[in-house]
Amino acid sequence: MRVRFAPSPTGALHIGGARTALYNWLLARGREGSELVLRIEDTDLERSTPENVEQIFEALCWLGLDWDGDPVFQSERSDRHAEVVERLLADGHAYRSTAGAEEVRAYKAAHGNRGFRGEEEEAGAVRLRVPAEGQTVVNDVVLGETAFENALQDDLVIARADGTPVYHLAVVVDDHDAGITHVVRGADHYSNTPKHVLIGQAMGIETPVYAHLPLLLGPDGKKLSKRHGAASVQELRDRGYLPEAVRNYLALLGWGYDEETTFFTTEELQRLFSLEKVSRSPAVFDEQKLRWMNGRYLRELPAAELTARLEDRTGRSGLADAVAITQDKISTLDEFWPLARSFFDAPADDPAARERFLAPEAGGEALRAARDALSALPGPWTGDAVEAALRAAVERSGMKAKQVFQPLRVALTGSTVSPGIFETVALIGRERALDRIDAALDARRVA
User: CA 181 to CA 189: how far, in whole Å?
Assistant: First the structure.
């Protein structure tokens, strides 16, 4: 099997394109001797910038999807495309025509909306001769068999009047020359398939196996877009998702091994994935489900590995202790630093939290009770020792635990959200914890 991923570098790699790349990669890596070709379809010269090409490379590398051989750039194959056009002309499979959109519309109106058939001319665009009778049959692994009536198909433009081949011609030539056996792409390309089959037949080449992947929708049932959350691989990376979790989630957008299994290692995906189990129904990309899955992956990472990833992401070192008490609280890498910031920097500034828990009429008694208990704490400053001291303070005060712990949390971290309060107090340390409580009490008196 030889497959290909052929993105157009007109922007960041979107979610649908990433799923297409993943499915092709799983096919290639799950079968001995199979290969994946990366072809950059960069014939849109205005939008196909080097920066966009680099974005595609970066996204694929972040996802862990490699390819075989050097990337192929479609723009560098124009001579080969032109050669095929000239051969089709010489063999009588194509002709030149100056007919424009108005002439095509007029022809179809006069012929009962049948496909346009032009007259051969000396100049103009090059059109493929489409048979007037019969059917072009597309056998698709996902969508099944469909017969397209040739009489309803226009003679297809395969090269412009200036000689530049169009996408339909270029993609068929490139797939053939690369030895592609299976074309796996999004369902939005399905309507192009009979055109590609006809071009291949005129060239006298074997038709590859086609598989068109279901559309991706948002949770509201509408076409996936930025309003549904992250729209590209780069956005997922920047929001703190793990590539292995993204691979797992994307694999399930249209494919499933059975009714129960949700979590797969990459090796399992390579071994189990097959086109025959891809659904023809649209799939729903729900970032909340991805976030849930990512949280599971984060919690199962070895602490040392998660620490290394977070240190690389934040540019900080010495995060191991903070990771140990936040790992089960975060669902993305981005959620770590807001929880851990107060261990390394000054408390956050949250006016709403101060107003609710540290205002002159609130929290004073609780903070003093917590401070008295912590300042009297003998021996080592550990989570267990802190917990024992604070629970005793709660019991003595007659208040509920939350009435003591929330003002203390805000005084120490500046936020109403943190890791467990006992672990937080222990990691901040005796001197800094007492100083921050004192600062909060002083601020109440000034206010």
Answer: 17
Query: What six digits make up the tokens of 186?
Result: 């999004």
* Model confidence at 153: pLDDT above 60: yes
DSSP state of 400: -
Q: Specify the pTM.
A: 0.91
pLDDT per residue as tens digits for the range 87-126: 999 999 999 999 999 999 999 999 999 999 999 999 999 9
258 Cβ contact list (under 8 Å, min separation 6): none
Q: Give the list of residues 6+ apart from residue 342 with CB closer than 8 angstroms, or none.
A: 348, 412, 413, 414, 415, 418, 424, 428
Write out the two tokens for 142. Answer: 């996902």
What CA dihedral angle connects 146, 151, 152 and 158, to 10 degrees?
Answer: 90
CA separation for the pair 92, 86 (Å, rounded): 10
Taking a C-beta distance cutoff of 8 angstroms, is the pair 129, 94 a contact? yes
Q: At 116, phi and psi to the nearest 5? A: -65, 135
Say how far apart CA 150 and CA 135 lie, in whole Å.
5
Biggest CA-to-CA distance, the chain:
100
Q: Which two tokens stand for residue 347?
A: 């408390």
Residue pair 433/426 in contact (Cβ under 8 Å)? The answer is: no
Distance CA 331, CA 313 (A): 15
Burial code (b: 16+ CB inside 10 Å, e: under 16) for 150-184 equals bbebbbbbbbeeeeebbbbbbbbbbbbebebebbb
Q: Which two tokens stand for residue 281?
A: 């129904």
d(CA 147, CA 308): 55
Give percent of the chain above pLDDT 90: 87
Model confidence over 265-301: pLDDT tens digits? 999 999 999 999 999 999 999 999 999 999 999 999 9
Q: What is the pLDDT of residue 23?
A: 98
β-pair partners for 72: 39
The residues pairing with 146 across neighbouring beta strands, listed in sequence order, are 138
Locate tokens 């990337």: which residue? Answer: 71
Residue pair 420/368 in contact by the 8 Å Cβ criterion: no
Q: Looking at the DSSP assignment, which residues form a beta bridge with residue 284? A: 217
Indicate which residues carry an active-site annotation: 226
pLDDT of residue 41: 94
Q: Of 384, 431, 439, 387, which Cα lies nearest the Cα of 410?
A: 439
Return d(Cα 409, Cα 59) in angstroms, integer.
39
